[in-house]
């Protein structure tokens, strides 16, 4: 079980100043004293997790569909509508792959003037991919970033988070999901190392008070389980997670598992997508649609519908279920470059503001709750849970 973390891994995970190993146990070479070198200790810059550093609390709903993402094509009068919505907690993660499927369908009839309805993760990536394939694109949307739901996501690569129920994960859906996931993953590699760090890899530590839950699946629920597809279908994409040896981490007597995650710094990333779309000649019109009949006013014959949770009201799609999620945003701490998960709370070290989020012990947390009213006590609890790791260690 024991594994020594390499120097580069430590530096990458802990940020530039987090360090190498304590030298306890080091003897002096020579003079007949035997040299002993203790294993390196993982030292992490403590997170400044105090409730007075919460700068904002945001709430939004994940657009979950039990049967998964909607990507079919519908004829509506003279308009062809390609749906691209219902990505649950995976909208950013799957965006490039899902949108590339929608774009192929939209351009299949030869149209080159295409409307995209919506300017969140799915609308923006659809619009950019349409442009790259030679289309002229106008985005029509009620709200633009940063005032879209997508701006309120945690910002992690989570391609199978609340994407569908296990019972609906048919072989056909699994194939579609794998295609979306692999395409997105590859595309995200093009955003590494750019100014503003829109995308980066980080180390994360899953911390537990007991050894068993380090390897246990999320707590069971009487309701049907959500599909977990990453391990089965794309386990080759990310490095394997590993246990951190007891005593070689800063979390006292707790048990720790380290994994690698891809993180999206959404402020920089969304701005980059918007800037690319506009500099490619894209147009944006602010418009709200109350029913699909309103699309008859648009000049374009082919539309990609990327309205996310908005599709529930717009298309009367009651299969879209809201899954509430609240982020407590903390003042940025650039020297902290690692994530944490402890007692049902996730911490993400986003450069555009730390993210503390109660996510519970299974994916039903916030299920069917469309309230977007911030809950200050939930935010305080999330921050205080992460603080425990540093106060008592
Ligand atoms: C707390 C939380 C954390 C999350 N964390 C992650 C994560 O770490 N990684 C990840 O991959 N995903 C995450 N998600 C999920 C992700 O945020 C969503 O799947 C994604 O934002 C959906 O994007 P979208 O483009 O479909 O919708 P939206 O971002 O909601 O965009 C919809 C667009 O359509 C427009 N629109 C809607 N209705 C109308 C209408 N009637 N007329 C005109 N315009 C309309 C809106 O104005 C907007 O421009 C998280 C979600 C939540 C709530």
Spell out the key features of this protein.
eight-stranded mixed sheet; disordered N terminus; 8 helices; alpha/beta; binds flavin-adenine dinucleotide
How does this model look, in words?
- The longest helix is centred in the middle third of the chain and has 18 residues, at 171-188.
- Helices cover 24% and strands 22% of the residues.
- The strands form 2 sheets. An 8-stranded mixed sheet has the order 1-11-14-13-12-6-8-7, covered by helices on one side. Strands 2-3-10-4-5-9 form a 6-stranded mixed sheet, with helices on one face.
- With 393 residues, the protein is α/β, with parallel strands linked by helices.
- The protein contains 8 helices and 14 strands.
- Mean pLDDT is 90; it is low at 1-31.
- The protein is globular, with a radius of gyration of 23 Å.
- The two termini are 22 Å apart.
- The chain has helices at residues 7-14, 91-107, 121-132, 171-188, 230-233, 266-279, 311-314, 376-391; strands at 54-65, 73-76, 79-83, 113-117, 136-141, 199-208, 242-244, 255-264, 283-286, 302-305, 320-330, 338-342, 345-348, 354-358.
- Residues 60-63, 85, 87-93, 117-123, 141-143, 148-150, 152-156, 158, 287-289, 306-310, 314, 325, 327 line the site of flavin-adenine dinucleotide.
């Amino acid at each position: 079980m024991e594994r020594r973390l390499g120097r580069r891994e430590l530096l990458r995970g802990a940020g530039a100043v987090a360090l190498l190993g304590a030298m306890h146990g080091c003897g002096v070479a020579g003079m007949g004293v035997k040299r002993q070198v203790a294993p390196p200790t993982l030292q992490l810059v403590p997170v400044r997790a105090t409730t007075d550093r919460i700068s904002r609390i945001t709430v939004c709903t994940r657009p979950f569909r039990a049967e998964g993402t909607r990507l079919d094509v519908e004829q509506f009068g003279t308009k062809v509508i390609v749906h691209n919505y219902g990505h649950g907690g995976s909208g950013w993660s799957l965006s490039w792959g899902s949108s590339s499927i929608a774009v192929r369908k939209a351009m299949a009839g030869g149209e080159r003037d295409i409307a995209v309805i919506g300017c969140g993760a799915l609308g923006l990536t659809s619009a950019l991919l349409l442009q790259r394939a030679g289309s002229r694109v106008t985005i029509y949307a009620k709200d633009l970033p940063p005032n879209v739901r997508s701006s309120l996501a945690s910002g992690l690569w989570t391609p199978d988070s609340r994407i569908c129920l296990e019972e609906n994960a048919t072989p056909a859906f699994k194939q579609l999901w794998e295609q979306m996931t692999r395409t997105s993953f590859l595309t995200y590699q093009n955003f590494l190392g750019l100014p503003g760090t829109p995308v980066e890899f980080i180390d994360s530590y899953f911390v537990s008070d007991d050894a068993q839950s380090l390897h246990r699946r999320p707590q069971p629920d009487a309701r049907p389980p959500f599909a977990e597809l990453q391990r089965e279908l794309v386990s080759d994409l990310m490095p394997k997670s590993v246990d951190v040896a007891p005593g070689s981490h800063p979390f006292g007597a707790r048990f720790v598992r380290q994994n690698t995650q891809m993180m999206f710094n959404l402020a920089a990333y969304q701005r980059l997508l918007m800037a690319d779309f506009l500099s490619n000649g894209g147009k944006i019109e602010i418009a709200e649609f109350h029913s699909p009949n309103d699309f008859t006013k648009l000049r374009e014959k082919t539309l990609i519908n990327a309205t996310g949770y908005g599709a529930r009201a717009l298309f009367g799609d009651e299969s879209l279920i809201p899954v509430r999620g609240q982020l407590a945003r903390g003042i940025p701490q650039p020297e902290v470059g690692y994530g944490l998960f402890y007692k049902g709370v996730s911490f993400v070290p986003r450069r555009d503001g730390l993210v503390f989020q109660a996510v519970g012990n299974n994916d039903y947390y916030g299920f069917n709750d469309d309230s977007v009213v911030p809950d200050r006590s939930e935010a305080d609890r999330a921050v205080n849970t992460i603080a425990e790791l540093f106060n008592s260690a």
